[in-house]
Design goal:
With 198 residues, the chain is an alpha+beta fold. The protein folds into two domains: 3-48; 89-197, Beta Polymerase, domain 2, CATH 3.30.460. It has helices at 3-22, 28-40, 50-86, 97-100, 118-128, 187-197, and strands spanning 93-95, 109-114, 132-141, 144-154, 158-164. It has a five-stranded mixed beta sheet. Keywords: Transferase.
């Protein structure tokens, strides 16, 4: 990669990160495409990786107000513990920015739950009296398209439950940010993280 290409890439990374931090663009691809359009007036082929943008978002957020974000992370993990405790029969696992600690102001709480029939989970949520929205999301895995239910909850922070068949608890999906297996934290592990921060 030439020096000019490296400079363009860095400018794109910074602008995409700024869009996510300051303008609440939530998807990496959307942020990168919008950055290219604003900076160069056209789509670009060689966009930065999600990891490059995620790293820049993390640095930008923590330069702005690390104390506030540390407190927000602590509170989000406590909410995750409450929700995971209530959903313990569905083997909840915390993933994403709240599990890694690399949150931004607009982060949500991402939890994987495992059940063979979505109705069982929805009936349980009704029993708890929780407000939710259930949608079907198509995800590409190993060259195939699969449909998964995503259930959105509203607590002090937005929560997204990704619903998988029970057997998939043994499989690890790959992260869209760095391409590595997603780290899923059990309720016990999340409690340990909160205790460490107290």
């Amino acid at each position: 990669m030439s020096k000019k290409q490296q400079q363009i890439r860095m400018i794109l990374v910074r602008e995409a990160a700024r869009l996510m931090v300051e303008e609440n663009v939530t998807q990496f691809l959307d942020a990168k495409k919008l950055a290219a359009k604003r900076l160069f007036g056209k789509p670009l082929k060689n966009l930065p990786s999600n990891k490059e943008v995620a790293d820049a978002v993390y640095q930008m957020n923590h330069l702005l107000d690390s104390e506030v974000l540390d407190q927000q992370l602590f509170e989000m993990r406590k909410v995750a513990i409450e929700v995971m405790g209530a959903l313990k029969d569905f083997s909840p696992r915390l993933i994403g920015s709240v599990s890694t600690g690399r949150i931004c102001e607009s982060s949500d709480i991402d939890i994987h739950v495992f059940v063979d029939h979505i109705e069982s989970l929805l009936i349980f949520l009704d029993h708890l009296g929780w407000q939710y929205e259930n949608t079907l999301v198509t995800i590409q895995q190993n060259g195939r398209l699969n449909d998964y239910h995503h259930v959105y909850l509203w607590f002090d922070y937005p929560i997204e439950l990704s619903v998988y068949p029970t057997l998939e608890i043994r499989q690890n999906s790959l992260s869209s940010i760095d391409g590595k297996p997603i780290k899923r934290l059990s309720l016990t592990r999340v409690k340990e993280l909160v205790v460490l921060k107290q």
